[in-house]
Design a protein that fits this description.
The chain is mainly beta. The chain has 1 helix and 15 strands. The protein has one domain (2-248): Porin.
Length: 249
């Protein structure tokens, strides 16, 4: 019962203030740029004095929570943390160590050149308590570009990342999203590309803008995945739900 109450508190914290989100200068609600897709970051950043609160419910009853702040005009700082088995009747609840998230957009883009940001994200997925590492590593250091292409509302995001400084492998990621009338967005991702010993991931999802400041994502990760993380540890399609709340002070 305590775990259920904790989850409800997180949901209410994200949803309650979202109904009042308005643009202070005009009084009209305005959809803010997306700073991330499902797993793939974008070159979008939070406004100065802005913040984003996100919760993700993932397989096995786990919950990921993150807070990010616009501490400077082009710089976002934040942290994320996972809690395994928080939802459900399993008593083995485990809180994992917080991971740092940083993003700096150094170019706002032009007619031909995309907006570009440099960042770091240590938050991984599928924690292995034996090795004390995530089986799906976080982005680590990354460079990402974002640009609207072809038609209004269609945006392409792509970049490179080095998740592990021990191996210094260079990975790549690519995402496409189409936003329809600031009400719903359709997202496709190809993540973790370039190295066969750490298989790529195909993700797809739908983002619903309940209000301009509050979104609900429903997505599937690892679509078609059939490689094992390690002997006896199966890799399979995972369904997730994300709640995201953006606003400013």
């Amino acid at each position: 019962m305590k775990k259920i109450n904790a989850v409800l508190a997180l949901l209410l914290l994200a949803a309650a203030p979202a109904l009042a989100g308005k643009d202070k200068s005009s009084g009209e609600a305005v959809v803010l740029p997306d700073v991330e897709m499902i797993d793939v970051p974008t070159a979008g950043i939070l406004d100065y004095y802005g913040f984003m609160f996100k919760t993700r419910a993932y397989s096995g009853g786990g919950v990921l929570g993150s807070l990010n702040f616009g501490v400077l005009e082009r710089l976002n700082l934040g942290a994320a943390m996972t809690v395994d088995k928080l939802i459900g009747s399993d008593s083995g609840v485990k809180m994992r160590r917080p991971e740092i998230q940083v993003k700096f957009r150094f170019f706002d883009g032009g007619y031909y050149i995309p907006a570009i940001a440099l960042g770091y994200d240590g938050q991984g997925y599928y924690y292995n308590p034996t090795d004390k590492k995530y089986m799906e590593k976080g982005k680590g250091m990354y460079l990402v570009g974002s640009k609207e292409i072809g038609v209004p509302g269609l945006a392409l995001h792509g970049g490179f990342n080095v998740p592990d400084f021990d191996n210094n492998y260079l990975f790549s990621f690519l995402a496409l999203n189409y936003t329809l009338e600031d009400k719903v967005a359709f997202m496709l991702e190809m993540d973790n590309m370039f190295h066969s010993d750490d298989p790529s991931r195909f993700n797809a999802g739908i983002r619903t803008y309940v209000t301009p400041y509050f979104q609900i994502d429903v997505a599937a990760r690892e679509i078609g995945g059939n490689d094992d993380f390690a002997p006896g540890v199966e890799r399979k399609t995972e369904r997730i739900v994300q709640l995201r709340y953006n606003t400013s002070f």
